[in-house]
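Q: Got a minute? One more chain.
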Amino acid sequence: MDLLERLARWRTFADDCLDGYPWEVEEFLMDVNSRSTLQELMAASREDRAVDHHLIAAELDAIDTTLRTIFDVEAFPKMPPSEWWLRCVPSYAARDFCREFKGAYGVSIAARSKFDLDVDAMVQLSANGMAPADICLKVAEEQWYVTKRPALLFRACRRSLPMDRSARRALWAWATGNVSAPGLRAALGE
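A: Always. Here it is, folded:
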């Protein structure tokens, strides 16, 4: 990845954290380590005339400033304070992340995320008798949080709806735009 791609990835990570990080600890660690790589690329780009270093630095600073407002749980105190992204973690995240992080590092993070709210609502719709395809289509039509990216939608459906491997393949194809709504209904047996 080049500098601009790394910056975009960091921006996406910040958005995920602000909404309550919905992924697993392994992804989180890769994301925070990508910030270190971004730092190195920033230093190397100072001499590159094709890159507007000042604009990129300003955007990075804005993302960092926002992210630091929630990165207030010190999880790894041996890391240098200047590398706050490696030293601290968000004060809240998705339930699964919080459980996994507590188990791995003994650090408690509040379970609060838009992802969990959507998953809980999807579970409730299923418990009320709504068919899985109808739930998926409703979520997409109403543009719930989990529809921000296909992987989020797929993850939410897997967490909330009973599906076999074939149904999960169809769900992924639908989430990525490769299967239509009728195709999703047919694959889910509706």
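A: The beta strands are 73-74, 88-89, 92-93, 110-111.
Q: Perfect, thanks.
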